[in-house]
Amino acid sequence: MDVRYMKNLVFLFFIVITSCTTTQDKTQFSEKALADVMLDIQGEKITFSKIIEQYKGRKVVIDIWASWCSDCIEGMPKVKDLQKENSDTVFLFLSLDKDFASWKRGIEKYQVEGEHYFVYDGWDSDFNKFIDLDWIPRYIVVGADGKIQLFKATKASDEKLEIAIKNSY
Description:
Blueprint: H1 3-20, H2 31-35, E1 37-39, E2 45-47, H3 48-53, E3 60-65, H4 70-85, E4 90-95, H5 100-109, E5 115-119, H6 126-130, E6 138-142, E7 148-153, H7 159-167
């Protein structure tokens, strides 16, 4: 084989390997994502790191949603089933509603039970940039060890979501 052919083959192999590395491989939140500011139900600012720190040692399902999102609302019955089946798991709802009042009305209207926070900078937040948010709902599972076990699911009925919840330690 000629050297130029081998170099091209190695380069092609490198491109294939690096393009197969996806955001699915992220197991820790970035410093910027952790520093992102959100609002609690009373309207007080809190960083994502302080939010997630509260649940250290427990499994956490992060559900990024909005009350205007039909796919989010459609998935709520399944989320509620997952909550019943996994009572030891924290369900953390991060809202991308257009405003604080709409978010609070949505929680009440759809009877969403769990921990609630409003993403202060919306779609442009550092948290959402870190997770490459392109669709809601979006589900992330964080294990009791604090590592991201499932980085991306967009349906509450996704088998990967159920498996990640069951297998998270």
